[in-house]
Design a protein that fits this description.
heterodimer; A: alpha+beta; B: mainly alpha; Four Helix Bundle (Hemerythrin (Met), subunit A)
């Protein structure tokens, strides 16, 4: 697996679970094998889930390889304030449609109002993590 | 992961970063108590990293001068060894992401996210301090 194949796989897995967010990859610390996964315009209630998903992917795909992926997830407000270029194009299109429409915002057939989250069939916490969290961690007592 | 060289003189010795990483951790805690969340994130991350680097030096997978790709290698090191390693890698990875935000990004680190990682970060740090002293 090379870096581009890994990015494709991560993008596929993320967009399957979270189809309405913008994903950008970046190199961390000039390390070609350490990839930051920037996800933007995430509903605040889903930020933790997206981060967990990226960490799950890192555990499942990158462990035992030279690669590592690190989550860099931003909610809608942070994206709008600091990274407006990464605001979800889908949402912008629908905001424009909605503002021009006669009916209320949620009358737009494909529009999900702020606060709703579409997360797909992914289970947010892996068995490995639950198991590990149950393990005693008081190592330095 | 490539083993660089095993320095026989370091076998069984305490983690060479033990003292410094404790200072770095204390600096991070002071920054945190003063509301300097980005500086706190940087110091707390590096405290953990230093403990892992000290262990890696003893094990021969890093040298004192290692600087290329070391943060990814640190993730690989903590990820070894099954369930505990999986959890450690995950938590260190989260802290690494916050450190990237603290040092390189436009926004501030989320204080609550940092606080949620503190106990595990300290456990990882102390684990590698202790492990270096017992590894042969």
């Amino acid at each position: 697996m090379n870096a581009e194949e890994l990015k494709d796989l991560v993008r596929l897995m993320l967009t399957w679970a979270f189809p309405r967010v913008t994903i950008q990859f970046e190199q961390i610390n000039d390390d070609p094998f350490h990839i930051g996964v920037g996800v933007y315009s995430v509903d605040p209630s889903a930020v933790r889930w997206v981060e967990d998903k990226i960490l799950d992917i890192d555990a499942e795909i990158c462990t035992g390889t030279e690669f590592a992926i690190t989550p860099l997830v931003r909610d809608e407000a942070t994206t709008l304030k600091y990274y407006p270029e990464f605001c979800s194009a889908w949402k912008e299109i629908h905001r424009e449609k909605a503002s021009a429409a006669v009916g209320p915002l949620d009358a737009c057939p494909e529009f999900s109002p702020p606060g709703s989250v579409e997360v797909g069939p992914w289970t947010p916490r892996s068995h490995a993590v639950v198991w590990a969290q149950n393990e005693e961690l008081a190592l330095a007592a | 992961m490539q083993r660089i060289h095993a320095d026989a003189s370091l076998k069984g010795m305490p983690n060479v970063f033990s003292e410094k990483c404790t200072k770095t951790w204390d600096e991070g805690q002071r920054c945190l108590s003063q509301g300097m969340v980005n500086s706190a994130t940087n110091r707390l991350y590096y405290a953990v990293f230093q403990s892992i680097k000290g262990f890696a030096i003893q094990r021969g997978t890093m040298t004192i001068d290692s600087s290329d790709n070391v943060h990814r290698i640190a993730l690989q090191i903590v990820g070894e060894g099954g369930g505990r390693g999986v959890y450690f890698r995950r938590r260190l990875n989260e802290l690494a992401g916050l450190r990237v935000i603290a040092d390189y990004k436009l926004e501030d680190v989320d204080l609550e996210k940092l606080k949620a990682l503190l106990d595990d970060a300290d456990n990882i740090r102390k684990y590698y301090i202790r492990l270096a002293g017992t590894q042969t």
